[in-house]
Every structure is written in structure tokens, then in C-alpha cells.
Write a structure and sequence with these properties.
Elements (H helix, E strand, L loop, with lengths): L2 E4 L6 H12 L2 E4 H10 L3 H11 L6 H12 L8 E4 L5 H13 L6 E6 L2 H15 L6 H24 L3 E5 L4 H16 L1
Parallel strand pairs: 1-3, 1-4, 2-3, 4-5
Helix pairs in contact: 1-8, 2-3, 4-5, 6-7
Length: about 190
């Protein structure tokens, strides 16, 4: 099965994705990880991505789409992907559907972690202490949250119309969220 999990930066997508990966033997496709790998590898693209991220903006659909297709086209991951933090816009959602269709795949369920800005700010600051990520500061967190909220509404509607969207209370504890997600996934597995 292919799953999309999304929510604002700091909503717990990465934590929940790791849980789903371990429990259901899926491969996590985190656009953040793909982008950070490019930066870490000091590629020309990585330098461009670093400048975009550090300004609080989102990386272009074209850049992200190419990284996604490279991942999806790998036969080892077929029908076993959790898309962590992607798509973030209607264009990305449509592009993802096209890429998956090209490789005879589809999205089976979309999980949206719903959290407040206050919770996101608190989690981002905690994560900054633990992981020392350059993009984890309050000003950038607020800007990214607002950008996410504005751009995600069409994506939410897109997946709601296709009856794939399931909204999860991201304010709950990690294990409560795990339990809710497991129930939803078990429901689509049949």
C-alpha cells in the first residue's frame, strides 16, 4: 500500500512515519530527508535547496517532483511507500498521482495530522535542541506553518473528494496517534 501523511512542520509526521514503516514494512519517502541529503552531499542542487529552506520558503515542485520520481521508479519500493510531508500543494498532489500512475501505483490512504501553531512552535524548539536542525527556529517555524496552512487547503480538498483523507488529532500523545493510525490502516487493508 502507498500512504500519504501530512501536517505542518513539527506535527510529528516523521515520528509517525517511522512507526508506520516499522509496523507495516514500508519505505519512508521524506522530501525533507531527500532535500537534506542533497544539502549534505554538497551538490549544486543542495546549495540551491539550502538557500530556499533557510529563507523559510518551500522548494519548487519541479525539484521535489524529480526527487520523488527517482524514488518511486525504484522497483524495491513499489506499493510500499509512505510519503512523509508530500504533497504540499494541489499541483504536487496531481503530479504525485501522475508519477504513481506511470509506475502502476496509487495512493491508498491520506493521513493528516492536525495541530495548532502553539504546539508546532513548542515541538520545533524541542527538536532544535535534540537535532540541531538549521531550519528549526521560531520565526521560520511560524512562516512555514502559515505557508503550509495556506497551501494545504486545496490538497486537503483534493484528497477529501477522492475519499482518501483521514484527519488525526496530532495534539494527542504519540502512542494514541499510533493507535488511531493503525486502526485506519487496518481498515483499508481489509
Amino acid at each position: 500500500m502507498n500512504i500519504v501523511i501530512f501536517g505542518p512542520p513539527g506535527a510529528g509526521k516523521g515520528t509517525q512515519s517511522k512507526f508506520i514503516v516499522d509496523k507495516y514494512n514500508l519505505y519512508q519517502l521524506s522530501t525533507g530527508d531527500l532535500l537534506r541529503k542533497e544539502i549534505k552531499d554538497k551538490t549544486e542542487l543542495g546549495s540551491e535547496i539550502s538557500n530556499i529552506i533557510n529563507s523559510g520558503e518551500l522548494v519548487s515542485d519541479n525539484i521535489v517532483g524529480n526527487l520523488i520520481e527517482k524514488f518511486v521508479s525504484n522497483k524495491n519500493y513499489k506499493h510500499n511507500i509512505i510519503f512523509d510531508g508530500y504533497p504540499r500543494s494541489l499541483i504536487q498532489a496531481e503530479n504525485l498521482d501522475s508519477i504513481l500512475k506511470k509506475y502502476n501505483q496509487k495512493i491508498d490512504i491520506v493521513l493528516k495530522l492536525s495541530v495548532s501553531l502553539e504546539t508546532v512552535k513548542k515541538r520545533i524548539l524541542e527538536r532544535k535542541i535534540k537535532e540541531s536542525r538549521a531550519d528549526d527556529n521560531e520565526d521560520i517555524a511560524i512562516k512555514r506553518y502559515k505557508t503550509y496552512e495556506k497551501s494545504s487547503e486545496p490538497v486537503i480538498n483534493y484528497y477529501r473528494q477522492s475519499n482518501l483523507l483521514r484527519v488525526i488529532n496530532g495534539e494527542a500523545g504519540i502512542s494514541e496517534i499510533n493507535t488511531e493510525i493503525s486502526g485506519l490502516i487496518e481498515g483499508i487493508k481489509g
